[in-house]
Amino acid sequence: MRPISFYKKALRFQQLYGKGRRIANCIQTNATLLNDDWCKFFRDNNFLVGVSIDGPQEFHDAYRLSTDGRPTWNQVMRGIRLLNQYHVEWNALAVVNNLNV
């Protein structure tokens, strides 16, 4: 994920060049690296956050592994709890596969 400073710069460009237009911002993430700072940023700037989660733990963890091969469902759920805690609007994106179909 790019640092928050990247997105703050993008928002400044939107204000500068948007000429008063209403601009909606969305971001897609697996939520494993979300923290308080990210969630505050998303809330304060009205981002819609799409979270990649492929269903219950056994389905999700079958294919969504960390770079070192560990399951990620618990990390994703931690990220979702943070989004909820900060009242960030989010939705889910699931890859349909042979397990969760």
Q: What is this structure's SSE topology?
A:
Elements: H1 4-17, E1 26-29, H2 36-44, E2 48-52, H3 57-63, H4 73-85, E3 90-93
Parallel strand pairs: 1-2, 2-3
Structural write-up:
The protein is an alpha/beta fold and 101 residues long. Helix content is 43%, strand content 13%. It is built from 4 helices and 3 strands. It has helices spanning 4-17, 36-44, 57-63, 73-85, and strands at 26-29, 48-52, 90-93. A 3-stranded parallel beta sheet has the order 1-2-3, covered by helices on one side. Strand 1 (26-29), helix 2 (36-44) and strand 2 form a beta-alpha-beta unit.
Low-pLDDT runs of 5+ residues are: none
What's the end-to-end separation, in Å? 29 Å
Order of helices and strands: HEHEHHE
**Taking strands numbered 1, 2, ... along the chain, how are they ordered across the largest sheet?**
1-2-3
Described by the principal axes of the CA atoms, the overall outline is elongated
Count of distinct strands: 3
Number of helices: 4
Q: Give the mean pLDDT.
A: 96
**CA radius of gyration:** 15 Å
Features:
single chain, 13% strand, alpha/beta, 4 helices, 101 residues, three-stranded parallel beta sheet, 3 strands, elongated
Quick overview:
The chain is 43% helix and 13% strand. With 101 residues, the protein is α/β, with parallel strands linked by helices.
